[in-house]
Design goal:
This protein has nine helices and ten strands. It is α/β, with parallel strands linked by helices and 249 residues long. It has two domains: 1-87 and 168-249, P-loop containing nucleotide triphosphate hydrolases (Rossmann fold, 3-Layer(aba) Sandwich), CATH 3.40.50; 99-163, no CATH class. Strand 4 and strand 5 form a beta hairpin. The mean pLDDT is 94. It binds adenosine-5'-triphosphate and magnesium ion.
Length: 249
């Protein structure tokens, strides 16, 4: 287990977010250790997407703080956030690849343009990652020639190209048909198994039990439970979590 000895890689303190009059995040405190694998669960509308979008600078917050490696990034402007986002990758439900680019070009485009990698290094890294996710032979294919699961695997690889040290996933498999869900979850498991910090929003309880170091359970813009999966699923402390678990058997 990850003890509290290491300095957190990511931390939120009393994070708040509102849309107009509606308070969507009502003081979120979360401390993420380097290498930790967190799964965020909670019913629809509880604020999961809003929360992880805040962690990637995609939402303007209304209070509290976000610290990345001890640095307060809460008030950074868009330009400065772009730099932070190289270290904090994000994968969405809809894997929006560039349709007119090949897989390889989709992967190499941003890191080369932003001078994170040379063209040769990007090419090499892309091919190594494609091999790792079992899609090496698709390097020259176009997105429309791939299944949904394959496209999502490419989208994950694309985020990994920037060599992030944190990966955020917002329901990465909920747009996929059931048969391909497993292959995408296996890739996420593999890529985050050795030291990459991850926060995954998902309803996939099997994945959560198997791969998470910790479950964070959200309800109405707050964190109700934060504990190891074996504790969360066996002995949740709140009624809200008990009901949620009963509905997600
Ligand atoms: N752009 C927006 N404008 C106004 N309200 C919003 C906006 N985005 C989200 N909300 C509201 O914020 C609350 C939290 O939404 P959020 O998308 O974070 O929930 P979620 O836990 O990710 O739900 P789901 O499981 O359905 O994805 C909801 O009540 C939602 O209606
Ligand atoms: Mg959501």
């Amino acid at each position: 287990m990850h003890e509290m000895t290491a300095a957190p890689i990511l931390e939120t303190r009393g994070l708040r977010k509102r849309y107009g009059e509606v308070e969507v995040l009502r003081g979120i405190d979360l401390c993420v250790q380097p290498g930790e694998r967190i799964v965020v669960m909670g019913s629809s509308g509880s604020g999961k997407s809003t929360f992880i979008r805040c962690l990637n600078g995609l939402e303007k917050t209304a209070g509290g703080a976000i610290l990345y490696r001890g640095r307060d990034v809460t008030q950074l402007n868009e330009n400065a956030w772009r730099g932070v986002r190289r270290s904090i990758g994000m994968v969405f439900q809809d894997y929006s690849l560039f349709p007119h680019f090949t897989v390889l070009r989709n992967l190499c485009f941003a890191p080369v343009r932003e001078k994170v990698l040379s063209r040769d290094d990007a090419d090499q890294r892309a091919r190594a990652l494609l091999k790792r996710v079992g899609l090496y032979e698709k390097a020259d294919a176009y997105p429309c020639q791939l299944s949904g699961g394959q496209q999502q695997r490419i989208a994950i690889v694309r985020s990994m190209m920037m060599q992030p040290d944190i990966m955020l996933f917002d329901e990465p498999t909920s747009a996929l048909d059931p048969e391909t869900v497993g292959e995408v979850l296996a890739i996420i498991d593999d890529l985050t198994a050795d030291g990459l910090t991850s926060i995954v929003v998902t309803h996939e309880t099997g994945f959560a039990r198997r791969c998470a170091d910790r479950i964070v359970f959200m309800d109405q813009g707050t964190i109700l439970e934060s504990c190891a999966p074996e504790i969360f699923f066996a002995t949740p402390t709140t009624d809200r979590a008990r009901r949620f678990i009963a509905n997600h058997k």
